[in-house]
Amino acid sequence: MNMKSDYIKVFGGNVTQSDCVEQLLKENDISPIVKSESESARLAGFGTPLPHISEIFVHKDEEAQALTIISQLNWDE
């Protein structure tokens, strides 16, 4: 799997928001990949300057659908 060419970042935010986006994408038959810098750093024994930030990637074929779903979220509610 070549993340650089086959997968596209569609979201970046705190862990709570990322968990919500991940679940919503899965409910719409999209298979997201979640990358957590803080978790990767913790597992490697390092700290991170931006704790609790996650990025979500989807296959490029699912990008448009994922962005449409994410754009409908209202974080103020």
TrEMBL record:
<dbReference type="Pfam" id="PF09413">
    <property type="entry name" value="DUF2007"/>
</dbReference>
<feature type="domain" description="DUF2007">
    <location>
        <begin position="20"/>
        <end position="72"/>
    </location>
</feature>
<protein>
    <submittedName>
        <fullName>DUF2007 domain-containing protein</fullName>
    </submittedName>
</protein>
<dbReference type="InterPro" id="IPR018551">
    <property type="entry name" value="DUF2007"/>
</dbReference>
